[in-house]
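Exam revision sheet. Question 4 asks you to relate a sequence to its structure. Input first:
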Amino acid sequence: MQLYWTWLLQWVPLWVAPNTITILGLAINLLTTLVLISYCPTATEEAPYWTYLLCALGLFIYQSLDAIDGKQARRTNSCSPLGELFDHGCDSLSTVFMAVGASIAVRLGTHPDWLFFCCFIGMFMFYCAHWQTYVSGVLRFGKVDVTEVQIALVIVFALSAFGGSTVWDYMGTSVLSPGLHIGLIIILAVMIYKKSATNMFEKHPCLYTLMFGCVFAKVTQKLVIAHMTKSELYLQDTVFFGPGLLFLDQYFNNFVDEYIVLWIAMVISSFDMMIYFSALCLQISRHFHLNIFKISCHQAPEQVQVLSSKSHQNNMD
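Answer key, structure tokens:
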């Protein structure tokens, strides 16, 4: 995006203050989001297509102006702590409106728990980024960070505009949920592997793989059941507790030895998977009156129906 931002900066007069650029971008983002909120106050309604396009355009303009305000400050030699405070203060407010707008675009109001999670996780991550800055003195950016998230939200708004927000009702159960499951497992596995202070995967590859294998096995079982029963697939699952322990241990700089936490995570994940699978098999066997480890002598319902009709015909003869 640097080429685009550099080109855009050329069109900004030198007399325009950086804070003016910042507040203009924020105002456009807030205005477009408020229009969308007015049509969807409970995040369950479907707004006119142009409101989603307006939000996509407003967010893109905000992202563009937010990216060049610092360039304008350096260009005009007007960098100051006030400008930094003004920029991040506007970003903190915009984060709230972006989370709400994106939730409306995918009709998350139909799933209040998800709405709560998605809105507050965005605010929490923004706070954590500045908490890290406060502790370390440096504002760090990753390969996938704010700009990538903003572009992704622009795409979400565009999809809702052209496909209607109800398209997410179908995609959420048939496409996104399974993808989120396996995506979450892979993301956790990679993050823990990369952040390990003791090269945990190289030292204990089998234990590490088995732990995540149990997580994968359970979510796959859930996917199979969701397919068989044509039911909704929920992302929340207790099997993620094990990987979560590893993640938190690394977040707090290996407060407990990683090898011990890995064993605990392995035990938790394996037991969770086995308990779920056992309960699932028992529930199915009881429902269909089947024996799990023995061949059932019961005839299939269609066979019983055929035999009954034949018996009835013989009696009539």
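Marking note for examiners. The chain has a mean pLDDT of 76.
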